[in-house]
Amino acid sequence: MKVSNPAAIREAFRFLVDEFNYSISRDKEFFNGNRPYAFVIDYVGNRRRIHLNHDYKENFFYFNISIEFTTQYPNDNNLESNIIFWKLFKHFEPSLELKTIQPDGQACEKAALVNAQFLRKYASGILRGEEWI
Questions:
Q1: Euclidean distance between the first and the last CA atom of the chain, given in angstroms as a whole number
Q2: N or C: which end of the chain has fewer CB within 10 A?
Q3: How many domains does the chain have?
Q4: Helix, strand or coil, per DSSP, at residue 100
């Protein structure tokens, strides 16, 4: 199974641009020599930043949403303005298991779609900048 698939992540979250008028502020695959080790894409809009990081070595999604400030990178330590997708989704579905939203053991494409579906389902008001959790 192919671990990396930036195109699948872009496609799964295209609704942020199409429906919520976000723009892409960063879209980059990182390499160590000629070996890719991560893909990062950031969306900004409605005073929010969506940070998607797929770590290939761990085959793990580090996805979060934050209230956007004028900093280049999200402050992951500021829990008042930053929340990981897992915590957001658990708020609405307490029985949700972490493996459901992670690519480990399943295709990256499927896990990206699940994350996008949950984000659209539970965070529309947040994505529009109307509320915060």
A1: 36
A2: N
A3: 1
A4: helix
